[in-house]
Amino acid sequence: xxxRVIVGPKVGEDAAVIDIGDKYLIATTDxxxxxxYKIGWYMVNVxxxxxxxxxxxxxxxxxSILLPENKTGSxxxxxxxxxxxxxxxxxxxxxxxxxxxxxxxxDRPIVSGHMLGEVDKNKLVTNSHARVxxxxxxxxxxxxxxxxxxAREREKELSGKYGNLFVERVQNFLHNPGxxxxxxxxxxxxxxxxxxxxxxTEGGLATGLLELTRASNTGVVIYEDKIHxxxxxxILCSEYKLDPLGVIASGALLIVVSPDDRDxxxxxxxxxxxxxxxxxxxxxxxDGLKIVVDGEEKELPFFEVDEVTRVI
Length: 312
What we know:
Helix content: 25-40%
Number of strands: 13
Low-confidence stretches: none
Largest sheet: 7 strands, mixed
Structural class: alpha+beta
Mean pLDDT: 95
């Protein structure tokens, strides 16, 4: 009920927005629960993505670190803090506070980030501004984070079947193509025709599109053959019978643009070596959420839980 809260809690918006005078403050929070590998580095990047998707620059970080009883030593604590510092330095983020404790009942560390950023008022991007007829650009591809997690958690099993080089390549999806979308969000937001940006995470691309349409009060139609899916992703999703549309998708960014500005935005992304393609458009709400597969229009699948949780 505070009028200075410009964007509050809402499905489909990546962060809260608060009026602090000449700029907007962007605030987000996100925990890491799927993995304990480089958990501090993960936490910084996924929170920074939320800030960037609103058009902002991530600036300040507080973090809550919960550590398991009887399993915590100084080496673990140092590793988590070193990973946080590494990621924060890469993105120019200041670590300005937080809380650390040993917590009863945990079997592995839990790290939750609380990040603040800022944005010029004329550069704020909210998904509620997307309109019917706008086109949707997808960067990099789908299931990037999910495949990196899978290759880490099932390393021994997959190395035996596909070889060490294959597994190492997929594990490195964290960095190449990478789960950060800060760079592409900044590039896209320099263009006048940006309507919205969304960072699809748990539940994959399908859930990200659902959230986007909830925020913009629209429907959507996408084309399966336009969605970039790395070959390694196809292999692993086939191996474990996962639908890549429902696998945690950090690393992808949905950019909604007016048709007149589409080519300019695509050109700028390509100039900066960012894989991108137009995968569909927003439609009237009553048209629902659709995907065209081999020329046939179908309902976009819905995932109650992320597909990767069926494996790890």
